[in-house]
Each structure stands twice: as structure tokens, then as C-alpha cells.
């Protein structure tokens, strides 16, 4: 699956797009199981590939994803942002520090150390993704945020042209084919 335009720049955008509605009524959840969620986090440098997430971890990721999707939807449509979405993002961002802390010991001297033990990998990933989502919706790129206009696709993207509003050439081709079909039927 090729990332949507902008999703390589913003992991939160790729995260929001990890629940996919596919043509033919198919549905693909890239966080649908602990193994799938581990793979997704590892591919985004948010967890070691052998971190062995549990189902509760995958469920936490899916829950934040839903809230981030609501946040993006509200931003795209210019609607009030649901309080639950703000709360979920703020909670994920503040539950755990994301900066590597400064340490000193006689053997190593000054060094930076990740503040989260392995057991808190998911909290760290949630914090990073939530902070990235907050950056996305408040930064200069927020104006380019759009929902893919090629049904049934449910991905979000950053528009590269003013009029382009699909997430991939594949979705663009499908949208054009659907328009051509509608025109032929109209004749
Ligand atoms: Zn699309």
C-alpha cells in the first residue's frame, strides 16, 4: 500500500490511514492484531520489531486512531472538534515524556536516555503520534489537509495541487473512470 500524499512526512497521517476501506466492500486494518500493530510501529520506527505487543496495546492504538480521524475530519470540514478527540490527543501527549532525558553517571558521563522502559513502548508511540497529529492540524500544512475524494477510499492526504483531492494515482484513476462512466450513462 503506497502511503497517501503527505503521509511519509506525518506519521500521524499514515496512522489515521491505517484503517482502510477498499473497493468491493473490503476493509483492511493495519492495526487489527497485535502482530500487525507491532509491524506497523516497527515500520515507523516507533517500536522494535520484537517488542511483542499485546491485544490491549493494539486496542489502545486503534482507539487513538479513531480520535485522530475525528480530529482530521473536523479540521477538513471546518467543524467544531469533538471534546473526546482533544482529550484523547492531549492525554496521549502528556502521559509520557517523549524527549530523551539528560543523565549523568561516572562511567558514561553525560548522556541522553530514553525515559520509557520497553513495557511502555506503546505509551511512547501514542505520545509521538498524538504530538504529530497536533503539529499537523495546527501547522502550515493544515490548509492542505483533505479527505480522499474517491469513494470508498477513506484516507486523508495533504493536497499537492489546489484541485487534486485524492490520496494516490490509483484513487485518481478510479475517480476519473467513475466520472467517465457517469457521463456515458448520462448520454
Ligand atoms: Zn484514496
UniProtKB/TrEMBL annotation:
Occurrences of domain Zinc finger CGNR (ranges): 144-184
Domain of life assignment: Bacteria
Organism this protein belongs to: Saccharothrix variisporea
Protein name per the record: Putative RNA-binding Zn ribbon-like protein
InterPro entries: ABATE, ABATE_dom_sf, Znf_CGNR
